[in-house]
Design goal:
Elements (H helix, E strand, L loop, with lengths): L2 E12 L2 E12 L3 E5 L6 H9 L6 E6 L12 E4 L11 H9 L8 H7 L15 H11 L7 E5 L7 H16 L3 E5 L3 H7 L2 E6 L2 E6 L1 H8 L4 E5 L14 E3 L11 E5 L6 H10 L6 E5 L3 H21 L3 H10 L1
Parallel strand pairs: 3-7, 3-8, 5-6, 6-7
Antiparallel strand pairs: 1-2, 1-4, 8-9, 10-12, 10-13, 11-12
Helix pairs in contact: 2-3, 2-4, 7-9
Protein name: ABC-2 type transport system ATP-binding protein
Keywords: ATP-binding, Nucleotide-binding, Transport
Organism: Natronobacterium texcoconense
Length: 325
């Protein structure tokens, strides 16, 4: 396969802040690469380095075989997270304006239809809903029919129906050979769209692979969530690992326990255990590990490593760091 986007050991600092620390990735033609990570992990800086709007301190980047700043702009589409067009342009005027910047632009009507704004084409940007505004922004970077798309949080503020429209659009573009690099905090979005995902933490890509590979390696075990006020100690003789549900996990609450490594066929065994011991419960939910579990596990690991590194510094080092922060 042909590498279209490459980053090799990219480094970038802003004063004492390390934004990128030897970050590396490769994206092939027609691939959707999802970049995930905590706020401040360096995702936007990495995208800027790959699009030529930020110069790295060290390392190298190449897009379409050349340095990012030298790429033919007709072949790129870049959607920043904070892109804000003029309020007093209609959706059509916005798309027409960007289409006018290129010699061989797509038909604005096709673009408006593709992002689901055909019926709102005469509405001023300021009067569009938040989701419609974001779709208009996505449309503005598609008018040149780019070979490579960089999307920084493309569905921020978009309602579920609009999000599905953008997802379908990205899938169609990739099927036609467009290479897509997107950042997102939506793990469902990354899992749905990305052929491969890279998790960025503290300026480094600490893991990458297909969502399935990452879940298999880092996602942990299946979990059966039992909504009950019973303490985990009440499950001492159950043959499966049991823990109190953590409040950080979605679809759980503090009045619940999690039973690990239970297959769907074994749920009945747990129910029999509950009933035999008169343990009251109000609901059962079984789930396989997903990309959110991977994110939480790896982000926690990176945070612990950073905290440990800070704790291991000498008093002099700690004092110096405090003085320069």
């Amino acid at each position: 396969m042909e590498a279209v986007v490459e980053a090799t050991d990219l480094e970038r600092t802003y004063g004492e802040t390390v934004a990128l620390a030897r970050a590396s990735l490769t994206v092939e033609r027609g691939e959707v690469f999802g970049l995930i990570g905590p706020n401040g992990a360096g995702k936007t800086t990495l995208v800027r380095a790959l699009t030529g709007t930020t110069e790295p301190d060290a390392g190298s980047a190449r897009v379409l075989g050349t340095e990012p700043s030298a790429v033919d702009r007709d072949r790129l589409g870049v959607l920043p997270q904070d892109f804000s067009p003029p309020d007093r342009l209609t959706a059509r005027e916005l798309i027409d304006y960007y289409a006018g910047l290129y010699d061989d632009a797509r038909d604005p009507d096709d673009v408006l239809a593709a992002v689901g704004l055909a019926d709102a084409d005469d509405t001023w940007y300021e009067n569009l809903s938040g989701g419609q505004q974001r779709r208009a922004c996505v449309g503005s970077i598609l008018v040149n029919d780019p070979d490579v798309l960089f999307l920084d949080e493309p569905t921020t503020g978009i309602d579920p129906a609009g999000r599905r429209t953008i997802w379908t659009l990205v899938e169609d573009l990739a099927a036609e050979g467009t290479t897509v690099v997107l950042t997102t905090h939506d793990m469902a979005e990354a899992e749905h769209l990305a052929d491969r995902v890279g998790l960025l933490a503290d300026g480094q890509i600490v893991a990458q692979g297909s969502p399935e590979e990452l879940v298999a390696t880092h996602g942990g075990s299946s979990r059966l969530t039992i909504e009950t006020t019973a303490d985990p100690d009440a499950f001492a003789d159950l043959e499966y690992p049991v823990e109190r549900a953590a409040t950080r996990r979605r679809s759980t609450n503090t009045d619940a326990v999690i039973v690990r490594d239970v297959t769907p066929a074994e749920i009945g065994t747990v129910v029999d255990y509950l009933e035999a011991r008169d343990l009251e419960y109000t609901g059962l939910t079984w789930a396989e590990p997903d990309l959110e579990d991977v994110y939480l596990a790896l982000a926690d690991d990176a945070e612990r490593e950073r905290t440990t590194s800070a704790d291991d510094r000498t008093p002099t080092e700690t004092a110096t760091a405090g003085e320069t922060a």
